[in-house]
Specification:
Length: 384
């Protein structure tokens, strides 16, 4: 596929840019901003089924929207988990009743979602699920007990899609189910924010103590959770990768400006690193376009994750290097009880330390490439 933008795409891009220029600066509340996006039909552009309040858009138009959004002054999205992960999964595996119930509120920006996958002690081993979902014979719902961790935006979410073990005698990826769980269950669900090195709390621990999920809200049927969960992960890295790279380019530009201002750019080693960062970012863009163009490479998502995670981490290191000694000067109050402000370089350096861990660690991505693409012998797994 020749991934190029035609005239209709550029008209679409112009409309998107104009709309964002008019509305992005007025966004003061993230939830209200999601509703503003929904009212204009900008949520769900990538869904293959229009008609839930979303616009129909081609793949190139989705890329144009993502790039213009990244370039605008619009705030980070709160609804991307529902839009880009849950919605395609429901379209692929959900019943008509599930799609009719959940897709319109996502498209309208009215309901926000979080992802209940990772668990303490399991690391990146998604099959090591210990959270249980038990249904009594006469009850129209499951009772969920267990703990999830590193749950992004759980403190804002209205719903959580949870991978839980519905067959108590099963092991590994067998006997799992994919359940849609309302978060407003006081006494049954507790969300505890996790304070990060940056002082912010984007991730959370989530505790389920008999939380309820209706039997009609099991996606794909009981026991099909692993297949549904793997399908969802296939949607995780798509058009948004190109928008992410726009943000990376903006960060690289700031590092370059700082290098010039501080005189660090006079160092040939620093100049060489800056050029390498620029060249690698261009290579990542072309790789992303190749993937979106339909290469069919089963290892493409893992390759992309390895590329950008290491690149971004190296950029964080470069950002504090070009700042010099000033990068080591922190806020006046580093106490756990007081929120503190980091400058852009410090935040980039500290946050990017996690890039090679979250979303599947580098070691896991290399194992996927080795086993699924290169056909090497599978790594022995311990018994859980």
């Amino acid at each position: 596929m020749d991934f190029g933008f035609n005239r209709e795409d550029e008209v679409f891009r112009t409309e998107a840019r104009a709309w964002l220029a008019e509305h992005a600066g007025t966004a003061h509340d993230r939830r209200a901003w999601e509703r503003t996006l929904g009212q204009a039909g900008w949520i769900g552009l990538g869904w293959p089924e229009p008609g839930y309040g979303n616009r129909a858009a081609t793949l190139t138009q989705q890329v144009a929207w993502a790039e213009e959004y990244a370039r605008s002054a619009a705030p980070p999205r709160s609804g991307h988990i529902g839009e880009n992960l849950l919605a395609p999964t429901l379209i692929a595996h959900g019943t008509e009743a599930q799609k009719s119930r959940f897709l319109p509120p996502v498209a309208a920006g009215e309901e926000l979602w979080c992802q209940g996958y990772s668990e303490p002690g399991a690391g990146s081993d998604l099959a090591g699920v210990r959270t249980t979902a038990v249904r009594e014979s006469q009850e129209p719902y499951y009772r969920i007990t267990g703990q999830k961790i590193w749950t992004s935006l759980a403190h804002e979410a209205d719903w959580c899609f949870v991978l839980a073990r519905t067959d108590p005698d099963s092991r590994r990826h067998h006997g799992l189910s994919f359940l849609l769980v309302p978060m407003d269950q006081p006494g049954r669900i507790e969300v505890r924010p996790i304070r990060q090195m940056t002082g912010t709390s984007d991730f959370n621990e989530v505790f389920f103590d008999g939380a309820r999920a209706h039997v009609e809200h099991v996606v794909g049927g009981e026991g099909a959770g692993w297949q549904v969960a793997m399908s969802l992960l296939g949607f995780e890295r798509g058009v948004s990768t190109l928008a992410q790279q726009i943000g990376f380019a903006q960060e690289l530009e700031r590092v370059l400006r700082t290098a010039v201002e501080t005189g660090a750019a006079a160092d040939p080693v620093v100049r060489d690193r800056l050029v390498h960062q620029w060249a690698e970012l261009r290579a990542m863009r072309w790789n992303a376009l190749r993937t979106l163009g339909g290469s069919g490479d089963p290892g493409a998502p893992s390759v992309a994750k390895l590329l950008w995670a290491g690149w971004h981490q190296r950029l964080g290191e470069l950002a504090v290097q070009v700042r010099g000694a000033a990068a080591g000067v922190g806020p006046a109050d580093w106490s756990a009880s007081a929120p503190y402000e980091l400058d852009a370089a410090q935040h980039l350096f500290l946050f990017s330390r996690a890039d090679t861990v979250y979303g599947g660690s580098d070691q896991v991505q290399r194992t996927i490439i080795a086993e699924r693409v290169l056909g090497l012998p599978r790594e022995p797994k311990g018994v859980v």
